[in-house]
Amino acid sequence: IRVSLANGRVLTGEIVGLDSSIDIAVIEVDADDLLVAATGDSGVIRVGDDVVAIGHALDLPGGPTVSKGVVSALDRSLIDGAEVLSDLIQTDAAINPGNSGGPLFNIRGEVIGVTSSKIMGGESLGFAIPIHYVKDFLRNREAFAFDKDNPNTGFRYLKPPPKSQTVKKKK
Questions:
Q1: pLDDT tens column, 106-115
Q2: Which of 100, 35, 37 has its CA nearest to residue 65?
Q3: H-helix or E-strand spanning residue 83
Q4: Are 84 and 77 spatial neighbours (Cβ–Cβ below 8 Å)?
Q5: For 39, which DSSP code?
Q6: 7-18 CB burial, b ≥16 within 10 A, e <16
Q7: Which residues pair with 86 in a beta bridge?
Q8: What's this model's pTM, rounded to 2 decimal places?
Q9: What angle do CA 57, 16, 152 make, to 5 degrees?
Q10: pLDDT at 155
């Protein structure tokens, strides 16, 4: 996994914890000089509070993007087949592919959520995982240890087929 920093530095990362029930992972990088963002209390946010989302929307060149909005709703749930994400923060701050995993800040510059998804086909329907879930996950990350070679972690990654392989159409 490639981790790009705001100063242009690119680090190699490795997934060391994963909880698909809240759509969150911990990526470890070998660096001692990283800044730590202050975290807030997602339990005290209210509908109408100002928020800022930061991420790499659509992986556009030129660095991260910033979008401003408000908390539109709390305790939202998204259902995608068998996957359910619940207790989400809904915001009208632009959340686009590439922003996922970026911070959602309150007006004091504290992280109150981690952006996770948006509803396609709708405008201003972005969602973030409340920071209290992330804090609980980090406190208990040993329970979510990830080992790509261990089939008991619940995930198994398969190698993609060779590019020379073609799919035959049925007549």
A1: 999 999 999 9
A2: 100
A3: strand 83-91
A4: yes
A5: B
A6: eeeeeebebebb
A7: none
A8: 0.76
A9: 115
A10: 47
